[in-house]
Design brief:
The complex is a heterodimer of chains A (about 210) and B (about 400).
Chain A: E1 2-7, H1 10-21, E2 37-39, E3 45-50, H2 55-61, E4 66-70, H3 71-77, E5 82-86, E6 92-98, E7 112-116, H4 119-128, E8 133-137, H5 144-148, E9 153-158, H6 162-166, E10 170-178, E11 180-184, H7 188-191, H8 193-212
Chain B: H1 17-36, E1 40-41, E2 47-49, H2 50-53, E3 67-69, E4 75-78, H3 83-91, E5 101-110, E6 122-131, H4 136-152, E7 158-164, H5 165-175, H6 179-190, H7 194-202, H8 208-216, E8 221-222, H9 224-233, H10 237-255, E9 262-265, E10 278-284, E11 292-296, E12 310-316, H11 317-328, E13 338-342, H12 347-359, E14 364-366, H13 376-383, E15 387-391, E16 396-400
Parallel strand pairs in B: 1-5, 7-9, 13-14, 13-15
Antiparallel strand pairs in B: 2-4, 3-4, 5-6, 6-12, 7-10, 8-9, 10-11, 11-12, 15-16
The chains are: A alpha/beta (about 210), B alpha+beta (about 400).
Chain lengths: ~210, ~400
């Protein structure tokens, strides 16, 4: 049996849809949003629903053989796992955003304060730019940072950019595009080669049809 | 009471009797297998100068070292691996001992790791190093000993996944990439992230043929037929030699009749500044991460001033124990064979007698009153001991302990 970890929420909904299209699942399980575990109809796959940022952890430990998670989570967690497929949904961008003009230039002129849910991505991005920044880790409503004066800029994912605009913020720099990925445990890929390969092939076929269609 | 008194630091572990028994059995099994293959055991200090591990020629990042500032002296570190100290020994104290050197160790190493199951900060390892032999015969020997050990330990359903870093290094040389580009590409191949690799390579200038092989590299894993496919992809002599080298090692392992445990992955590209040829990892369905790993490291010993080739493997004892436990459960500790009870006046003769039994290989316990068990029989029952010898001034009796209710509960 193969265990697949799904990131609870919108990604899981889209993932289940993809599994249905590719013939891996026939029906969406009843009461889906409250399930923790469910099986494919033929019993060959066990799906577990976990907090998005935990997907890479489950997969790295081998508690799940594969998982579906956003690229943002994968970058942030930096786990030793195989990233096999770009599933094309959950598309957005990881960006640096802030006011078009830096407002507060006195005290914090020497270094930039960045509010973010993604401290690792932020650290690696700014260190590659050769900038030292102060990272302020928040768990949500990151846009508030610059509004309240907690930070100069934010690093966050942006889909349409509406929330930013509503708060008078703009995208200052783009870090990378984000979308949902299929990740696989490094040992499972080798020891459950046949099972995983068949799942990936089915998904790949659907993805190709979507791209051509 | 100070609550820290009752806890141990994260990543460390107490081995309680059953775990310790199984750990020791594993270690003894490894020791026997290594020894029977002609390897001699060495022990190195638990801490050494930071300088020994500082050269970047190891697989361990500086962040992972446990450092001890020595007042007025240099920085010390808890040994993060044993291969490096063995290279130091080989290049200094054993420099005049002739070659090859076949050395093994069974010791803990210490690494500051993010904690996870089976990834402790005190990592018990058993491993061998074969120094002074450059060819495939040496690599095959090391791999075959790893397989012998895993089989002997009772592990089923494992495989040794073999790669060769020269294949990737040949392509990087051919593509004339700078260090950063090479590292970016390496990391994408290591993640088997084909899409990102494809888009990365789009913006890098290199021969189209090289690009094609690099793009294929994440998929170059599987059985021996994969090696043929790899050969058909490139004319780069470094790459071809790498595949030939794997085939030679595989040929030897076929002669050893161990080929059914072998698979290949040319996209295995970790620790490239350390490994110089064959690399491999042992994996099993039981565990999501490798149980052993090793390869050829021809440059390490020269860091210590003695230019000899070397190859080796380290087996993770805790990881093997986890895999064994999941596969078939841990072994029980055998109970004492005999529980000995004697009257005070018979102490001298009783002791002589029980020493005789012990010399004959019997595990003999002397019963002691603790108030925990009401009598020797209930104690024997609780401890699973089947025979009791009672000795008094005028009697000697043997009691066979029948199965019955467990002894008194001592927890209260």
């Amino acid at each position: 049996m193969v265990t697949i970890a799904l990131a609870k929420g919108r990604l899981a909904d889209e993932a289940v849809e993809l599994f249905q299209k590719s013939g891996i699942l026939c029906n969406k399980p009843d009461d889906f949003s409250r399930k923790l575990i469910f099986h494919s109809e033929d019993g060959s796959i066990r799906f577990i629903l976990v907090k998005p940022s935990d997907v890479p952890t489950y997969v790295e430990y081998g508690a799940a053989d594969a998982g579906i998670a956003g690229k943002d989570t994968l970058l942030e967690e930096g786990r030793a796992i195989y990233e096999m497929l770009d599933l094309g949904f959950g598309k957005c961008r990881m960006v640096v955003a802030g006011f078009p003009e830096k407002k507060d230039i006195w005290i914090t002129n020497a270094h930039t304060r960045v509010a973010t849910k993604y401290p690792n991505i932020t650290r690696s991005y700014f260190s590659r730019q050769g900038e030292s920044v102060e990272i302020i880790r928040l768990n949500g409503s990151v846009e508030l940072g610059p509004l309240i004066g907690l930070s100069d800029v934010i690093v966050d994912i942006v889909e349409s950019g509406r929330t930013l605009r509503e708060n008078g913020l703009v995208v200052l720099e783009e870090i990378c595009p984000i979308s949902a990925r299929l990740v696989v445990n490094r040992v499972s890929l080798k020891v459950k080669d046949r099972e995983l390969r068949s799942i990936m092939d089915k998904i790949q076929k659907v993805l190709e049809e979507q791209n051509n269609g | 009471m100070n609550r820290w008194k009752q806890y141990i630091p994260e990543g460390m572990q107490d081995f309680l009797p059953v775990e310790c028994y199984n750990k020791r059995k594993t270690e003894e099994c490894l020791r026997r297998i290594f020894f029977m293959n002609g390897y001699d055991e060495v022990e190195t200090p638990i801490f050494e100068y930071f300088d020994v591990f500082a050269d970047g020629n190891t697989t361990i990042a500086q962040e992972q070292l446990f450092k001890i500032p020595e007042t007025g002296g240099r920085i010390l570190v808890l040994r993060p691996d044993i291969t490096t100290p063995i290279a130091r020994i080989a290049a200094t104290k054993l420099k005049n001992s002739g070659l090859p050197l076949r050395l093994f160790y069974i010791s803990s190493v210490y690494r500051y790791e993010e904690l996870q199951m089976g990834k402790q900060r005190d990592i018990a390892q058993g491993g061998i190093e074969l120094l002074g032999v450059p060819g495939p015969e040496a690599d095959a020997e090391v791999i075959s000993i790893a397989i012998q050990a895993l089989l002997e330990l009772g592990l089923r359903d494992f495989q040794i996944d073999i790669g060769q870093v020269e294949f990737f290094k040949g392509l990087i040389e051919e593509a004339a990439l700078d260090e950063q580009q090479a590292e970016d590409i390496r990391s994408l191949i290591d993640q088997k992230n084909i899409l990102a690799l494809e888009s990365y390579l789009k913006n890098v200038d290199m021969p189209a043929g090289t690009k094609k092989v690099l793009l294929d590299l994440p998929n170059l894993y599987g059985g021996a037929d994969m090696l043929e496919r790899a050969l058909s992809l490139t004319e780069n002599p470094r790459c071809i030699n790498a595949v030939r080298n794997i085939r030679q090692v595989y040929g030897i392992l076929c002669d050893y009749e161990l080929d059914k445990y072998i698979t290949f992955d040319l996209g295995m590209v970790h620790s490239l500044n350390y490994y110089t040829g064959i690399i491999f990892r042992g994996i099993t369905r039981e565990l999501g991460y490798p149980i052993c790993g090793g390869g050829r490291y021809d440059r390490l010993v020269s860091e210590f001033g003695y230019d000899i080739p070397a190859t080796g493997v380290a087996l993770g004892i805790k990881r093997i124990l986890i895999a064994l436990e999941r596969q078939k459960g841990l072994d029980k500790i055998p109970p004492a064979d005999i529980l000995f009870v004697f009257e005070e006046g018979e102490r001298n003769s009783a002791f002589r007698y029980l020493q005789k039994l012990r010399r004959k290989g019997k595990r003999v316990e002397v019963f002691m009153e603790t108030g925990c068990d009401s009598d020797p029989v209930s104690y024997a029952r609780r401890r699973g001991i089947e025979r009791i010898f009672r000795v008094g001034e005028r009697y000697f009796e043997e009691i066979i302990v029948e199965d019955g209710p467990d002894g008194d509960d001592c927890a209260g």
